[in-house]
Amino acid sequence: MTKQHGKKIIQWVGGFLLLLIISACSTSNANSNVADEQKEEGEKTVLYTTITGEQVEIPADPKRVVYIGQTIGDFLAMDIPVVGNNLPKEPASYYEGKLEGIVDIGNPADLETILTLKPDLIINGYYKADPNLNEELAKIATTIPFNPALPYTERVKEMGNILGKQEEVAQVIAKFETRFTEMFEKLQLAEGETATVFYQLGKTLYVMGDRSLGAIIYGENGFAVPPAVQKNIIDVEGVSFVTVSEEVLSQFAGDHLFVIVQEDDESESEADRLLQSPIWGTLPAVQKGNVYVIANEWNTDELLALEQLYKKLPEWMHKQ
Question: Membrane-crossing residues (predicted)?
Fold first, then answer.
């Protein structure tokens, strides 16, 4: 072998090794970039201003949500990945088949159970009842306060802001507004025709405002609000209902009466007594047969219930 030939071989081998090194570096850099992109995508967050005015970073697309609150039907209707909730002990009929896979975290919340669920976002609807709970939950995952007592339109819009589903929420609200507008058009209510929602809980009778079922019947194109309900409940900040005695029933009673009865022996017995009392019998709505006794599960404006409520209400009024 000549020196010149050997030199060429050495040059060729050196060049080949250099190409291998460059290729390996390129592959390594490419893999590193992909990993960085995946990590960045997986950890992407957005800034969110909570209802208490605090600005926090939350996951842009949470995959494991723990919701502490009673409006779980909103989350179910919007297919939000809830892994834990303080589930109702006696689920309403519209929850059937919908709660599978969701862990009951207790009422209002067992921290150890929540920890095992490895949530990436906790939405706390009980932040007012227990201010310290938020701090404890924040040690597990990003936690934000939430007000489940808002009317469903406001409540669901806030959910959209939290979960980045503003467009979907707008479509959902528009769908239900259309359905209830069509329902009230079929009911052909006279202008100014009023309705009242009574709620029998044990021996106490309440008049409800524009929350839960009231948010539906007093909605656009719906029933008018009786003046006493407007003055004593709706116009009073922070008041959603008031207790009433039989002596003042006539002041609150509208042209139609929806009587919600808690499902227990005492409430049902007391409701029966009320409906047979002489004072109740003097109300114009009673004399016209415009009284509708309904189960407590329908005292709600959760999205999951609304899927059926626009059909149920005409049935109660015998106008289906």
Answer: none
Helix (H, G, I), strand (E, B) or coil at 110: coil
Whose structure tokens read 């019947």?
217
Q: What is the pLDDT of residues 175-226, one digit of tens each?
A: 999 999 999 998 999 999 999 999 999 999 999 999 899 999 998 889 999 9
DSSP state letter for 258: E
- The neighbour count for residue 166, using CB atoms within 10 Å, is 12
Indicate the number of domains in the chain: 2
**Both tokens assigned to 95:** 């929850």
Sequence letter at residue 215: A
| Domain extent for 280 | 188-316
Query: Which positions ≥6 away from 252 have C-beta within 8 Å?
Result: 196, 207, 226, 228, 229, 232, 244
Which of 169, 163, 113 lies closest to 142, judged by CA?
163
What CATH number is attached to the domain comprising 122?
A: 3.40.50.1980
Q: Is residue 40 part of a domain?
A: no
Q: In what order do the strands lie in the sheet with 291-295?
A: 241-244, 204-208, 195-201, 256-261, 291-295
- Contact between residue 216 and residue 180 where contact means Cβ atoms under 8 Å apart: yes
Q: How far, in Å, CA of 160 to CA of 140, rounded? A: 23
